[in-house]
Amino acid sequence: MVRFEGEDIATTGYSKHRREHVSLVFQDHNLIDYLTPEENLRLVNPKADMKILEDLGLSREESKRNIMHLSGGQRQAVSLIMATLTPIDFLILDEHTAALDPKTAEIIMELTDKVVKQKKLTAVMVTHNLRYAVEYGSRLVMMDRGNIILDKAGEDKKNTSIDDILAIFNKISIECGN
Predict the structure, then answer these.
(1) Phi and psi at residue 25, in whole multiples of 5°?
(2) Which of 54, 49, 129, 43 is nearest to 83 (CA)?
(3) How far, in Å, CA of 66 to CA of 73, rounded?
(4) Residue range 78-102: average pLDDT?
């Protein structure tokens, strides 16, 4: 169960309340493939400043081309910006770097960190990248089959290493016969 302002957002329909306060970024970009980056952004905010696309490193020409002509990382960056163009309180990131090469994933993580901090968002990031789990955010929660098996915040999180998490993962894996 995921509760936001008293509403279980994991099981309720896509209500207006949820749409106005919660945004999602998935592993596979959630853009309309036959539109340009500009057109995708304007669907969310017709008054959006398109300079934001230049800030992502897209040329004017690229921002006016079909979204499918961009690299996976560029599409994911546009998807992240699109998800945060309107005022929201909560951002859910579902393995949003999983399908990217390591260098591009780093760029997307840096952009994510910047956006979350600038907009003062509460964010939940699902990741299998243990380094990202350790380096980013203020709290680390590790789950197994719906149960919390590790919950670290503050100094405890800062003192948690990749090896600590990997040891727990390996123990679970051995117990499951993997």
Answers:
(1) -130, 125
(2) 43
(3) 15
(4) 93
In degrees and rounded to multiples of 5, residue 164 shows phi and psi of: -60, -45
Return d(Cα 157, Cα 19) in angstroms, integer.
31
What is the model's pTM?
A: 0.86
How many residues are given for the chain?
178
- Of 117, 121, 99, 124, the closest CA to residue 9 belongs to 124
Which two three-digit tokens encode residue 85?
A: 């163009």
Query: What pLDDT, in 10s, does the model give residues 19-46?
Result: 678 899 999 888 999 999 999 999 989 9
Distance CA 90, CA 23 (A): 6
Distance CA 62, CA 117 (A): 27
Confidence of residue 57 (pLDDT cuts 50, 70, 90): confident
